[in-house]
Amino acid sequence: MRGRSSPRKINYGFHYTEDRGGYEVHEAHMAVERRIFCMIGAEGVLIHGAKKTLKREGVPIPSGGRYWSTKWYTRDCPERCL
């Protein structure tokens, strides 16, 4: 899957094409997103529980920081669930 990029920061789950003229799915990151959607949406795990699970398993954080941000779950994640 490919698309045209805008000048803003690209969302987790995607990366720029080699020529940086567009973006495409980053399969490893998208697998993490699918798992988060499943945990929270289908399994009823709370956001805090999902964050703890990802941290315990050493899943890389989208921002590169030390902790999974609650903002990511409440702002960025739902935007792509629609």
Secondary structure layout:
Layout: E1 2-4, E2 14-16, E3 22-25, H1 27-42, H2 47-56, H3 70-79
Antiparallel strand pairs: 1-3, 2-3
Describe the structure.
The protein is an alpha+beta fold. The protein has one domain (2-79). Helices cover 44% and strands 12% of the residues. The chain is built from three helices and three strands, in the order E-E-E-H-H-H. A hairpin with a 5-residue loop joins strand 2 and strand 3. The radius of gyration is 13 Å and the shape is elongated. The model has no long low-confidence stretch (mean pLDDT 78).
What are its keywords?
single chain; 82 residues; alpha+beta; 3-stranded antiparallel beta sheet
Kindly summarize this structure in a few lines.
By secondary structure, the protein is an alpha+beta fold. The chain has three helices and three strands. The longest helix is centred in the middle third of the chain and has 16 residues.
